Amino acid sequence: MRVILTMASAVHWFRKGLRLHDNPALLDAVQNPTTTYVLPVFCLDPIFLRPETVGVNRMNFLLECLQDLDQQLRKLHSRLFVLRGNPLEQLPVFFRKYHTRLLTFEFDTEPYAKQRDTQVRRLCAELGIEVRTRATHTLYDPEDIRRELGDRPTPLTYKSFYAFVTERLGQPMSALDAPAPASGFQTPDVDLDTYTVPSLSELEAYQGLEVETPFRGGETEALRRMENFLRERADEVRSFAKPATSPTAWPVASTTQLSPYFKFGCLSPRLFVERVRSLRPLQQPPVSLIGQIWWREFFTYVAYVTPHFHQMQGNPICRQIPWREAADDARYRAWEEARTGYPWIDACMVQLRQEGWLHHLARHAVACFLTRGDLWVSWERGRETFDRLLVDADYSLNNANWLWLSSSAFFHQYYRVYSPISFPQKYDPNGEYVRHFLPVLKEMPSKYIYTPWLAPVVVQKKAKCIIGEDYPHPIVDHAVVMRENMRRMREALDAGAPQRVPKRPRRDANEASSSSSSS
DNA sequence: GAAATGGTTGGCGCA
DNA sequence: CTGCGCCAACCATTT
After folding, report:
1. Range of weakest confidence among A115-129, A215-229, A280-294
2. What is the distance in angstroms measured between the alpha-carbon CA of A517 and the sugar C1' of B1?
3. pLDDT of residue A4
4. Closest nucleotide to A479: CA versus each C1'
């Protein structure tokens, strides 16, 4: 053992991309001719080890991913080394200990990762360690897209992005196999009792917190779920049209629920696209299943090239709107804690907290309600809640969707507001979804399930649910605040863009206007 | 450069 | 139960 430890090692640093299949950066480490063995590493960065930042459901999911990774690596006579602490401190210690000469990792587009990786590269340069990265979180390398775009502006619509990338870059690379047992993958039997994958209870900040999510982490589970879905629901895969799926389907969701696995890279988007394509889907992007992967591609790219993408201030594509900002705002708290008095909204927020997942349209409903629809609270607050509670929380997609729903970017038809009453009604007229996640409303007649405050007191008594005692009164009058908010939005747009002139005089304007186009 | 087109997924009242 | 016009009139992109 002492002999092998004097030989040069390659370290593959897992961050996302928690998989062995389609992992070219890992293969780079395995196949590198000038290093003798490979050390697969994950670093538990304390910045993420806080329940206020990463909820217990996602932390548990991550640990399960690491356990699975370790088990899969052991089948290759390797293992996972879990470091604990800031990677900028822990990695160099590890590098010195094992004479590292090559570091490989998956390219990451997020702001925190970008600055962290820049510092790690600098550090490796000082230590004489070569660094090689591959972009495999998405179908395409974002840098390839940027290069092709050149001086052109960033496409801000799905269609223009999709058209440009498919035309200029053609098909994405095909997915690679996991390293074979005889691939020369060698890891020494060292430090067997250290660098192990911790259990949740070993993480001090998470002690005593209950894991409720039904999602089990790991590449093995990801591949199993994907293949199950493709086999058992092949017809749905072929005819899949996202807007036609139901947000109230429970416990069997109307979508694949693979998002947590894509978030952590347990599943390669390239592999998924290839497997779906083999079933010859009938629909096309943007609504098709493969079209969903392209939404991810689009939002990841725009998030990558847009400064301050995660906030309103300094974000060049974000509408400037005077939202309520305070995190202690009673409205925000009521929304987050499922106390708005609108059963559909509250049921969604309970599912989010319990399962760490919501159907896309349910996310729309609660996001619209918090921001432009009803409560006029900043999308950044809602983003934070989602970021903490979603198992699939992804920086780019989460921020992009909040920008979208608040009509701050991408989507601009702010007068299209989701009704917290009629929207769920068309999917689930009896409110089964609400009854499950809000058992207090279990016996409320279907007629009042989305509007229990309208139920006569005798009906409330019979249902054992008195509004104002057992379940709250509605926090706002949707019909009223919706109008108010539309007016606010209009005013914000006028204030923020004084150069823009209405093409036609507005009807509610008092001016007897003939001012068609002024300068 | 002006005008037209289109935008994954709204709600409502009415025929 | 479906389709249509209306609500009020957004923005990015194409023509």
Report:
1. A280-294
2. 14
3. 59
4. B11
